[in-house]
């Protein structure tokens, strides 16, 4: 394992070096939080794919393939569909707004009265996303170094918090590009063909496994529908995803770069399911499906290659963890803390102070994430609660604001409150992992949004006029920054 250890250590040291490089570049709020809104199509595509394809997509995607066969691709596939929908239909408008958070968008659209409640919901979602990503370090470091769960979480979490705190979005962007390349080589170009060959090829896989393992809908229609509702729609409104859209240098970069990233996700989904199916042939009686990835890597890959593939898994977890962490800190500082203390965001002469403040919040949220990750046991339930609140509480007012002119601030606030309360209440009744809470919570949010919006006065014409100006990209330039990053 010495060679494998060396690969991992070099990789982790490189992540910290990228953080140091990013610290020297992030000199303004725009540079620190959204990389100066200057990413070109290649860098934008790579970082967007990296943020959405985390530990759940890699380790969990292989596990679903082990359990259900090719239809196990659906979870990651719906993530790719959501990213494609966001990129094609909404990303250009989102990028032109030149904001930093989803709640700022709601304030612009509804007249400054919808932000803080939505900020609390979004903060809870990004916090739990960061926590669940951080917990995944335990699986990888256990395979690598045979360390206990707490040490693994502290080790992985500390590295992510360090480079994220140092350089903000610039550090995360550069590390995500490295992670994207490592994932592509490790999972798609190495693990996928090796797993299929070791399993005897597709012919042997079909001969050894039941026919339902090769049924595209074998996982079940209701499960697929729930994945679409949670993950596809979740991609449309999550702060972690929007904050990457804000980094695009132009409308076309956001649209086409995101489309490339979404297509990559679809390929990654199928690859994970195929690897899991191959693992089922080789190891038909594993104690849990989630052990499939680590088992096939540990037992079937040669020295050096094994280290690179484990680095790919580590890259997947780190990219999602760092993206969720900066999103959580941005929401906590800009949407909650600044509003509570009555500060006005965006002061022109305080950019350096704002960098320090956001850096402090990343450090604070990072420590909180590590502590919660150590204390928390049930990752699936925590992530389900986060996504249910996000979709049930925020999907309707966000998409309604983008698509329906008649939507009002009162309707948006009612939708957030009723949708969120309905989801929580229904989870208490049906169970956290049940499908009904998000179904009924979303319907309640939609009904209340429409009814209250129609029953209240339309949004002020001046607010809508300012909103249209922002959507058109007029009068929203950030302070002067260096030339765009064109890669």
Automatic annotation (TrEMBL):
Gene3D superfamilies in alphabetical order: Sodium/glucose cotransporter
Major location (coarse): membrane
Keywords: Cell membrane, Membrane, Transmembrane, Transmembrane helix, Transport
Pfam families the UniProt entry points to: SSF
Subcellular location as annotated: Membrane
Record's bilayer topology term: Multi-pass membrane protein
Transmembrane feature ranges: 6-23, 44-66, 72-95, 116-140, 152-173, 180-197, 217-237, 258-279, 308-332, 360-379, 385-404, 411-432, 438-456
Family (UniProt): Belongs to the sodium:solute symporter (SSF) (TC 2.A.21) family.
Name of protein: Sodium:solute symporter
Organism, as annotated: Streptomyces argenteolus
